[in-house]
Amino acid sequence: MLDLGPFVAEMVKWTLLLGIFAAIIAFFKSPRMKGFFGEKAVELAGRLSLDQSEYIQLHDLLLRDTDGSTTQVDHVILTPYGIFVIETKNYEGWIFGSENDAKWTQKLHGKSHTFQNPLRQNYRHIKVLSKLLAIEEGKFKSVVTFLGECTFKTKMPPNVVKGLGYIDYIRSHNTPVLSPETIRKAAETLESVDIGHGREARREHVDNLRAAHKDRSAKSPQKCPKCGGNMVLRTNRKTGEKFWGCANYPKCRKTLPVRGAYK
């Protein structure tokens, strides 16, 4: 009688190996790992392309604001020509947005997804840095770089770029506004106040983000800015996204985004 034991054992072994291999591939293709490797690519490109004696580069800073909240900054490059604060985004598909929009939109595989305007997000980082360093906000330059295989479908401002375009943007600034001593002290200050060297600090930051999002989502605008009626929380049937809609619909069709309705 044919002994199938070795054959079955071999099949089980290969099935397990293939399962592990698939899990590893899925892990490295996850948004978290894509973001991690994207930020590391920006860090490496900056170190290779910018003179480190003139451009002091700090990465992945976790800073505590004066109100006790925390903010995570992807990259800070201190130069005589300003302090460049870089926010990285890893998105694919089509990207729609403008400087003044509260939300931008990603369209991928026929589906739409909205996300916070990264320029507004980065402005929060600059405000925190300005207070911590006692340097006026005008000396900071906001930069957003998209790292994924995406296409801008609306005209973006010059400080919103793809890939390594942020390097050319930084190099386009050549008028000194900061002294070498100011830059040195700013770098020392940021290194000393960075709290992001342990799991507890990172966990606290994530908890802060979740609490802030929950608090924003729970608050409702008092009245409709168009007709004065009450605003009620509704759900877009196509996208599943929450929004505030006027209770007098369909007479009044005014809507407000959940996160932008009470800023």
Spell out the key features of this protein.
2 domains, 263 residues, 38% helix, single chain, alpha/beta, 4-stranded mixed sheet
Helices, by number, come to: 6
> What is the count of distinct domains?
2
Strand content: 25-35%
Element order, helices and strands? HHEEEEEEHEEEHHHEEE
User: What is the makeup of the main sheet?
Assistant: 5 strands, mixed
Shape: globular
Distance between the ends: 77 Å
Helix/strand-derived category reads alpha/beta
Strand order, main sheet: write it out. 1-2-3-7-9
Query: Helical proportion?
Result: 25-40%
What is the gyration radius calculated from CA atoms? 23 Å
Poorly predicted runs of 5 or more residues: none
Task: Provide a concise account of the structure shown.
The chain is built from 6 helices and 12 strands.
Can you offer a commentary on this structure?
- The chain has a five-stranded mixed beta sheet with strand order 1-2-3-7-9, sandwiched between helices. A four-stranded mixed beta sheet has the order 6-5-4-8.
- The longest helix is centred in the first third of the chain and has 24 residues, at 5-28.
- It is of the alpha/beta class.
- A hairpin with an 8-residue loop joins strand 11 and strand 12 (255-257).
- The protein is built from six helices and twelve strands.
- Helices cover 38% and strands 26% of the residues.
- It has two domains: 28-213, no CATH class; 219-257.
Give the helix/strand layout.
Blueprint: H1 5-28, H2 31-49, E1 56-64, E2 70-79, E3 82-89, E4 93-96, E5 103-108, E6 111-116, H3 118-133, E7 140-146, E8 150-152, E9 160-162, H4 165-171, H5 180-193, H6 199-218, E10 231-235, E11 242-246, E12 255-257
Parallel strand pairs: 3-7, 4-8, 7-9
Antiparallel strand pairs: 1-2, 2-3, 4-5, 5-6, 10-11, 11-12
